[in-house]
């Protein structure tokens, strides 16, 4: 059985996993990130890889290659992490550094959302001629599009759903960027301002909503309507055959799926509503990034 290492790099943690060619997650390790310095951050990546190899009793010689998901903008051909808003890696040559560290020739890098989308596309068994969209809702909001088996990248910045404008009631019925109005930090801020309660986490907000606390209903109505507006743009511009949600905010609250469907249906005309039957929440959850990164090694 062929194996690869998938790495999912974030501002708070780094996950490294051994992935089989069929997409099975065999072993996984997580370490804390250290974004205080570019070299310290890289040393944590190395630590994660070394730990997962030790845990699996494998050597680097047993590995086909390494796939790496990095936030922000990357140069896939040159293997450079160009820009991230949560890491100190501007123009960081991640591929060359990993090759130097581990002696592995086959290294694939991409944006972390694209890596997660690839795993979801594989898991969804989408037909080769269909259009697939992966939407992540977490501390940010973004999406990735796979059409006819290939990523749609545009000029390099396609899929930034969080930048799209929506009409926010909470902002006084004015246009606001979706991410600013309805990502995790925005939900916490909205709850604090609406209920005059400090220290509420996104998890607290959803837990109390699902527990039946009526004070939280308007907050969830606002947030899910904002999501639906963004999704309606996707529905209109791309008309995907299938859409999968990931990211901690929605993956940890699967009961929101039906709410979002109802909100989206209010915007769609009947000819667009086929999408409602083909929207789902990831079964891979927080592992989709490392699984996708590992699987991309076998596609290289």
UniProtKB/TrEMBL annotation:
- Name one matching Pfam family: ROK
Species per Swiss-Prot/TrEMBL record? Bacillus salipaludis
Please give the family membership noted in the entry.
Belongs to the ROK (NagC/XylR) family.
**InterPro entries on file:** ATPase_NBD, ROK
Tell me the classification of the organism that encodes this protein: Bacteria, Bacillati, Bacillota, Bacilli, Bacillales
The protein's name is: ROK family protein
């Amino acid at each position: 059985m062929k194996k690869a290492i998938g790495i999912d790099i974030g501002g708070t943690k780094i996950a490294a996993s051994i992935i089989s060619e069929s997409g099975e997650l065999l072993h996984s390790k997580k370490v804390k990130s250290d974004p205080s310095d570019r070299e310290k951050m890289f040393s944590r990546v190395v630590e994660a890889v070394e730990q997962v190899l030790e845990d699996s009793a494998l050597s680097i010689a047993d590995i086909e290659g390494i796939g790496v998901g990095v936030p922000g903008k990357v140069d896939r051909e040159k293997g450079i992490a160009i820009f991230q808003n949560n890491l100190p890696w501007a123009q960081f040559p991640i591929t060359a550094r990993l090759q130097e560290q581990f002696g592995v020739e086959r290294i694939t890098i991409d944006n972390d959302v694209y890596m997660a989308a690839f795993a979801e596309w594989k898991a969804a068994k989408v037909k080769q001629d269909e259009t697939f969209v992966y939407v992540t809702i977490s501390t940010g909001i973004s999406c990735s599009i796979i059409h006819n088996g290939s990523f749609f990248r545009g000029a390099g910045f396609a899929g930034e759903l969080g930048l799209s404008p929506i009409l926010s009631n909470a902002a006084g019925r004015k246009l606001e960027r979706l991410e600013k109005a309805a990502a995790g930090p925005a939900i916490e801020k909205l709850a604090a301002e609406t209920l005059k309660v400090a220290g509420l986490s996104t998890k607290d907000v959803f837990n109390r909503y699902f527990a039946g606390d009526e004070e939280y209903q308007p907050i969830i109505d606002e947030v899910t309507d904002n999501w639906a507006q963004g999704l309606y743009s996707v529905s209109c511009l791309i008309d995907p055959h299938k859409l999968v949600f990931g990211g901690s905010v929605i993956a940890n609250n699967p009961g929101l799926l039906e709410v979002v469907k109802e909100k989206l249906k209010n915007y769609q005309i009947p000819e667009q509503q086929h999408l409602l039957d083909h929207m789902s929440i990831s079964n891979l959850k927080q592992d989709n990034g490392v699984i996708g990164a590992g699987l991309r090694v076998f596609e290289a």
